[in-house]
Amino acid sequence: MIVTRKGEPYELSGTSVEVGHQAPTFTLNNLEDKAVSLTDLLAKPLLISVVPDIDTSVCSIQTKQFNQQAGSVEGIQLVTIAKNTKEELANWCAAEGVSMEMLHDEALAFGELYGIKMADLGVLARSIFVIDTDGTLVYQEIVPEMVNEPDYTAALDTVKALVK
């Protein structure tokens, strides 16, 4: 798959995931250096927001939007994944006054598993994944132009519909 950054095309690498199939299992560290795996997150329907670099404007907007909108929904789990270091993510959270589950993927392992690794830029493609409590991928959006925001409404409506 190809995504663009300011119109310039970049090839995504890794294994493409498909809606309706099991989501690939991953383990990444959070800001407390605790290993968090997909299975740890499936007690509730899960919305994964992936940003290329938390220290850029669109990534910051995306993370704050999901934190505000999904944070008010009972019965869902929200996680943001970025290639940033633990320190960069912690500094952003402190500066923005945001408290949420942030996972860092400096090795781009999540990106490889989910087909969103942008090796040429050393980042993850801006994307959203919704996974039900059985581990099935029920929604995905890989934003075709990196400087654009994702479809917040579609992702949130999908995860809300999974709450029982």
UniProtKB/TrEMBL annotation:
Domain Thioredoxin: 17-164
Record Gene3D superfamilies: Glutaredoxin
UniProt superkingdom: Bacteria
EC number(s) stated in the UniProt entry for this protein: 1.11.1.-
An MF annotation (GO) of this entry: thioredoxin peroxidase activity
InterPro entries: AhpC/TSA, Thioredoxin-like_sf, Thioredoxin_domain, TPX, Tpx_Peroxidase_subfamily
Classification via PROSITE patterns: THIOREDOXIN_2
Keywords: Antioxidant, Disulfide bond, Oxidoreductase, Peroxidase, Redox-active center
UniProt-listed SUPFAM superfamilies: Thioredoxin-like
PANTHER family: THIOL PEROXIDASE (PTHR43110:SF1)
UniProt name for this protein: Thiol peroxidase
Organism of origin: Vagococcus xieshaowenii
Phylogenetic placement of the source organism: Bacteria, Bacillati, Bacillota, Bacilli, Lactobacillales
